[in-house]
C-alpha cells in the first residue's frame, strides 16, 4: 500500500483537502492561465554539446548506398542490429546473443540475455551529458503558452512519479492504464512505468468510458493515471468523469491518480489519489529497475477485423532500438533539431515518434495538445514559426482538411526552420503531397510518406532523406527500412515476384520492433499475422511494387477501416449498433471520404415492429456508437435496407456493400453466388432514395 507523508490523505478533490491548491513542483504543473511567451523566451533545443549520433555510413563505412546498407541488414541481421544496439543504447548488462527466434511458434527475441532500462536510455543518459537541453516542448492548446522541459526536469519528474507508483505498490510487470492529455505528465507517466518495470497501456483520451473500461479489464490494470480535465480545440473534456464511469465497471482497479490540467475541482472517490500531493512527498532520485531486453514495455490496444481491440505488446530493447534508429534515419534527425510530431500520445505514432524514438536520441520533441484548426487553420504553421520546428510529422487527413483553406494561412508564417516533412497513417494522395511539399515545404524540404503499423513498432517503408543520392517521389512510401524485407503474396499464399505487381503486403524478415504478442492471446497473434501467409508476417494491407521496385500501399484488405487516420474495426461498430433493440441486422463498411480518408457507412435491417421512429433510432445509434467507442466511429450514413447481400452459407458479401457505399453500382462484379441476387438492386434503390 501507498505510504503517505500527509497526516490527512487527500479525500475530496484534486487539490488539498483544505481547499488550497497544492501543486507539484516543476513542469507537470500547468494551468490554462495565459503566459504569453515571446519567441526569444523559447529555448528551441538548448545546450547541444553531446556527440551526435553517427550516420549509418559511419557505423558501416564499407557500405555506401541505401541499397547496400539495406541488403547488408537483411543478409547479416545479427551483425547489423548487434552493432547498432551496442553503440546506441546504454545497457545494464550487455547482450551476448542478438536473436533467439522460434519462428514456428511466432516467438521473437532480440538481445535476450541483455538488460537495459528504457527510461535510463531516454532520459538519464541525456540528463547526464546535457541536462539543460530541452527534452519536451509542450505546445498547449492555447497558442503562445508553450512550456519547455529540460532533460534534467524530465528526469526529476519521471523519478518522482516512479517513486509515487512504487510506493503505491506498483511493481514489475504490473499494468498501468494512462488516460491523459498530450502533456509532460503523459510522457513522465510512460517513462515512470518503464523505470520501475511496470507496463503502460495508454488509452487515447478521446475513447469513451466503455472503451476505456474494456481496455483496463483486458490488461488487468490495477492503477490508472488521469487528469481532472483535458483541453482540446478550446473545449474542455471531462477526463476524470470518463475515468469514474470506466472504473465503476472495473473491479481490478484499486487506485486512480488524478493530476491537474485545469485545476478544476473534481469529485474524488475512495480510490482516487491527488497526484500533485503524492508527487510532492517524493524525491527526484529513483533507482531504475533492472529489465531484461524482452520484458514488456507497453500494451497499446488497436482494432482488428474481428473481435474486440487487441492489446499489441511491445518489449523493451528491440522496440527502443527500432524506434530510435528509424527516428534518426527516416527523418535525418540531427542534434539541435526540434522534432514536431503532432500525433496524440495515445496512438503508436505518439509512442514511437513523440516519446521513445526522439528521447532515445536525446532530441527536443514537441508535444502538441491542440488541433490543426484551433484557433484557426494557420495553427500548425504558426507553431512551427514560434517553436522553430525542423521536422513536421502529421496525418494526411489533417493536410486534406487544411488545403481547403486559403494558402495565406500557410504563407503568413515563417517556415524557414523546416527541413523534413512526414506523413503517416493513411495513403498520402497526390494533391495533399503537393500541397505539403510545394506550399508548406517550399519544395525545399524532404517529404517522407511513412508506412507502418501499431504492430510494427516503427516505420517500415519510407523514403530515406539521409540516404546518399536517394530520390524521393511523390505520394508513395517507396523503400523498405533496414531489416525489412517486403514480400507480396497471392491469395493462395504464393509469392509474387518481379516488378509492376500487386499482392498482400507481408514481411519476410524479423525486425527488432515487431510486436511480440497480443496480450493474453498468443494464438490470436499467430492467427492474425502469421497464419494467412505461411512464413511471413501479414500486415493486412495490399501493396503494389512498381517497375523501379518502389512500394505503393493500396489499402486494407480486411475489415479494418481508416477514419481520420484512426484504425477502426467495422465489427466494433456493428457490435455497438446491435445493442439497439430495434436493429435486426447490420453491416458496416468504409467508403472514400475527401477529408477523413474513409467514412463509416452502416447498412441495417430494422425489426418488423420498431419502438421508435427511424430518425429516433438513428439518433440513438449515433449516441450508442459514441458511448461504446468514440466520436470518430459514428457512421456518416445509416441506410435502412430490406436485406443484406449474403452467400448461401450466410456470409455477408461486403465487397458489394463497399461498392454501393462508394456509389459505384456499376462495379459490383459477380453477384451470382448470392443466395438472393435480387436483394442487391433493392439496396441500390434504397441508397438512391436516401441521397
Ligand atoms: C495505414 C499507424 C498508406 C495502413 C502508424 C496500416 C498507411 C494502418 C500508411 C496502421 C501510409 C499507415 N500509407 N496507409 N503511409 N501508414 N497506413 O496501427 O492501412 O494506427 O495498416 O498505425 O494504417 O494503422 P496504425
Provide key terms for this protein.
691 residues, alpha/beta, 8-stranded mixed sheet, 7-stranded mixed sheet, 30% helix, globular, binds 5'-O-[(S)-ethoxy(hydroxy)phosphoryl]adenosine, Acetyl-coenzyme A synthetase, EC 6.2.1.1, AMP-dep_synth/lig_dom, AMP binding
What does this structure look like?
With 691 residues, the protein is α/β, with parallel strands linked by helices. Helix content is 30%, strand content 20%. The protein contains 20 helices and 27 strands. The strands form 6 sheets. Strands 9-8-5-3-4-10-11-20 form an 8-stranded mixed beta sheet, sandwiched between helices. A 7-stranded mixed beta sheet has the order 2-1-13-12-14-15-16, sandwiched between helices. Strand 15, helix 15 and strand 16 form a beta-alpha-beta unit. Helix 4 crosses helix 6. About 6% of the residues have low confidence. Bound molecules: 5'-O-[(S)-ethoxy(hydroxy)phosphoryl]adenosine. 5'-O-[(S)-ethoxy(hydroxy)phosphoryl]adenosine binds next to helix 11, strand 16, strand 21 and strand 22.
How is the topology of this model organized?
Blueprint: H1 56-59, H2 66-75, H3 77-88, H4 118-129, E1 134-139, E2 147-150, H5 151-167, E3 175-179, H6 184-196, E4 199-202, H7 209-219, E5 223-227, E6 230-232, E7 235-237, H8 239-247, E8 255-259, E9 272-274, H9 275-280, E10 296-302, E11 310-315, H10 317-330, E12 338-341, H11 348-360, E13 364-368, H12 379-387, E14 391-394, H13 396-402, H14 408-411, E15 420-424, H15 430-440, E16 446-450, E17 486-489, E18 495-496, E19 501-507, E20 517-518, H16 522-530, E21 537-545, E22 551-556, E23 560-563, E24 566-569, H17 570-578, E25 583-593, E26 597-606, H18 614-628, E27 637-640, H19 654-661, H20 679-690
The structure holds 5'-O-[(S)-ethoxy(hydroxy)phosphoryl]adenosine (WTA).
Amino acid at each position: 500500500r501507498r505510504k503517505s507523508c500527509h497526516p490527512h490523505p487527500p479525500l475530496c478533490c484534486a487539490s488539498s483537502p483544505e481547499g488550497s491548491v497544492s501543486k507539484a513542483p516543476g513542469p507537470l504543473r500547468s494551468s490554462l492561465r495565459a503566459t504569453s511567451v515571446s519567441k526569444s523566451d523559447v529555448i528551441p533545443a538548448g545546450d547541444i554539446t553531446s556527440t551526435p549520433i553517427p550516420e549509418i555510413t559511419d557505423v558501416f563505412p564499407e557500405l555506401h548506398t541505401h541499397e547496400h546498407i539495406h541488403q547488408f541488414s537483411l543478409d547479416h541481421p545479427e551483425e547489423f542490429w548487434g552493432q547498432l544496439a551496442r553503440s546506441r543504447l546504454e545497457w545494464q548488462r550487455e547482450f551476448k546473443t542478438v536473436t533467439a527466434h522460434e519462428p514456428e511458434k511466432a516467438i521473437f527475441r532480440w538481445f535476450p540475455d541483455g538488460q537495459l532500462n528504457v527510461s535510463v536510455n531516454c532520459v538519464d543518459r541525456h540528463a547526464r551529458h546535457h541536462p539543460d537541453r530541452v527534452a519536451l516542448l509542450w505546445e498547449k492548446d492555447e497558442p503562445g503558452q508553450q512550456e519547455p522541459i529540460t532533460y534534467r526536469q524530465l528526469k526529476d519528474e519521471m523519478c518522482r512519479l516512479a517513486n509515487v507508483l512504487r510506493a503505491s505498490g506498483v511493481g514489475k510487470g504490473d499494468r498501468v492504464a494512462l488516460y491523459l492529455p498530450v502533456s509532460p505528465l503523459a510522457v513522465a507517466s510512460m517513462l515512470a512505468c518503464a523505470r520501475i518495470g511496470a507496463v503502460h497501456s495508454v488509452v487515447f483520451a478521446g475513447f469513451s468510458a466503455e472503451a476505456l473500461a474494456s481496455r483496463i479489464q483486458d490488461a488487468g490494470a490495477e492503477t490508472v493515471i488521469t487528469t481532472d480535465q483535458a483541453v482540446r480545440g478550446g473545449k474542455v473534456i471531462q477526463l476524470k468523469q470518463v475515468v469514474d464511469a470506466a472504473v465503476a465497471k472495473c473491479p481490478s482497479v484499486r487506485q486512480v491518480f488524478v493530476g491537474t490540467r485545469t485545476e478544476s475541482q473534481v469529485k474524488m472517490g475512495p480510490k482516487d489519489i491527488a497526484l500533485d500531493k503524492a508527487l510532492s512527498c517524493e524525491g527526484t532520485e529513483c533507482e531504475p529497475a533492472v529489465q531484461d531486453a524482452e520484458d514488456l514495455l507497453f500494451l497499446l490496444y488497436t482494432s482488428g477485423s474481428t473481435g474486440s481491440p487487441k492489446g499489441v505488446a511491445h518489449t523493451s530493447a528491440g522496440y527502443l532500438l527500432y524506434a530510435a534508429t528509424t527516428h534518426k534515419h527516416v527523418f535525418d534527425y540531427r542534434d539541435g533539431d526540434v522534432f514536431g510530431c503532432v500525433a496524440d500520445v495515445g496512438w503508436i505514432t505518439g509512442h514511437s515518434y513523440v516519446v521513445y524514438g526522439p528521447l532515445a536520441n536525446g532530441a527536443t520533441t514537441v508535444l502538441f495538445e491542440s488541433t490543426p484548426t484551433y484557433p484557426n487553420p494557420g495553427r500548425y504553421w504558426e507553431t512551427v514559426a514560434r517553436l522553430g520546428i525542423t521536422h513536421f510529422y502529421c496525418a494526411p487527413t489533417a493536410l486534406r482538411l487544411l488545403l481547403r483553406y486559403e494558402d495565406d494561412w500557410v504563407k503568413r508564417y515563417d517556415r524557414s526552420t523546416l527541413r523534413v516533412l512526414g506523413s503517416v497513417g493513411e495513403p498520402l494522395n497526390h494533391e495533399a503531397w503537393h500541397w505539403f511539399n510545394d506550399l508548406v515545404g517550399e519544395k525545399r524540404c524532404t517529404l517522407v510518406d511513412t508506412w507502418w503499423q501499431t504492430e510494427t513498432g516503427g516505420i517500415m517503408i519510407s523514403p530515406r532523406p539521409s540516404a546518399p543520392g536517394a530520390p524521393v517521389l511523390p505520394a508513395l512510401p517507396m523503400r523498405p527500412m533496414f531489416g525489412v524485407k517486403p514480400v507480396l503474396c497471392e491469395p493462395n499464399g504464393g509469392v509474387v515476384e518481379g516488378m509492376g505487381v500487386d499482392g498482400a503486403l507481408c514481411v519476410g524478415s524479423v525486425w527488432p520492433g515487431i510486436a511480440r504478442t497480443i496480450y493474453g492471446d498468443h494464438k490470436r497473434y499467430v492467427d492474425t499475422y502469421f497464419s494467412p501467409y505461411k512464413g511471413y508476417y501479414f500486415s493486412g494491407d495490399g501493396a503494389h511494387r512498381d517497375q523501379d521496385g518502389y512500394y505503393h500501399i493500396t489499402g486494407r484488405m480486411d475489415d479494418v477501416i481508416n477514419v481520420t487516420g484512426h484504425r477502426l474495426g467495422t465489427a466494433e461498430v456493428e457490435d455497438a449498433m446491435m445493442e439497439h433493440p430495434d436493429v435486426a441486422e447490420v453491416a458496416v463498411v468504409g467508403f472514400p471520404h475527401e477529408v477523413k480518408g474513409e467514412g463509416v457507412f452502416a447498412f441495417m435491417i430494422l425489426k418488423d415492429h420498431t419502438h421508435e421512429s427511424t430518425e429516433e433510432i438513428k439518433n440513438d445509434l449515433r449516441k450508442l456508437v459514441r458511448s461504446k467507442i468514440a466520436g470518430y466511429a459514428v457512421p456518416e450514413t445509416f441506410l435502412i435496407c430490406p436485406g443484406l447481400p449474403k452467400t448461401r452459407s450466410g456470409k455477408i458479401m461486403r465487397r458489394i456493400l463497399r461498392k454501393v457505399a462508394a456509389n459505384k453500382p456499376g462495379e459490383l462484379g459477380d453477384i451470382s453466388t448470392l443466395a438472393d441476387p435480387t436483394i442487391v438492386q433493392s439496396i441500390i434503390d434504397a441508397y438512391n432514395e436516401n441521397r
